[in-house]
Amino acid sequence: MTEQVVIVCPSGVARLQEEAERIAAIKARGAVPVQCGDAIPDAPARGAFRVFTPMQLCPVGSEGYEAQPAGYRGRSAIRNADVFDVMAAKAASKGKPPPFSPGQVSMARHYRDLVERHQCAGLRCSSVEALRSGGDGQGGGFMDAVLRDRDEIDRLRRRVGTGCAIEVRRVRPSKRGSRVSITNRRLVDMVCIEDRSLRDVLQFHGWSVYGETIKAVRVALGGVLDAMAGPVRGGGIQAFNKGA
Q: Considering only CA atoms, which of 61, 57, 87 is closest in space to residue 69?
């Protein structure tokens, strides 16, 4: 016969020790590491996060500079982990390198930050002409910044293009089922902005999740991110689509 500890709440409702252990596990996942200090509160709803050391360039000698830790009181900081952190962590747990290069990840986060900042500006439906010509000179810097963000977003999306990462037309009709093509733009937005995994992208478009399809969207996303960072280079979007 097993023994169980019963906890009675103020309301008179009893719950088993397993429930208390479940709650303790949730709180433990939200606990902030010791090296970050006690200024950051524990927050179970924060979700996955990554610990990092803030750095800044400090003058060394008469002309040189050196990157040095710049955390508050020498402490580390945390930031919410995004889908690229999760993918890198999963790859590391299997002894594999991250699926995307540092440059590709930086481009993805730059695009995400641009879109989020522009959406929060509240000027998406405003006329460009009105923003540039109207007003009394107050707040012009803010409007100019919003317009610059939008121009940058448009430029990056032109580089993404209208192609497809995976196209249904390349699959025999008997095997299509409910699958639909995955456009490069939708792939980028789902992963970079909506923080969806490659598995989520495939399932959303009706594709089976297995080695070949995961590899296909991973290669396609890497190619798109490379294209967003500059002119299309060897192995870019066009090269992948021709061989898909």
A: 57
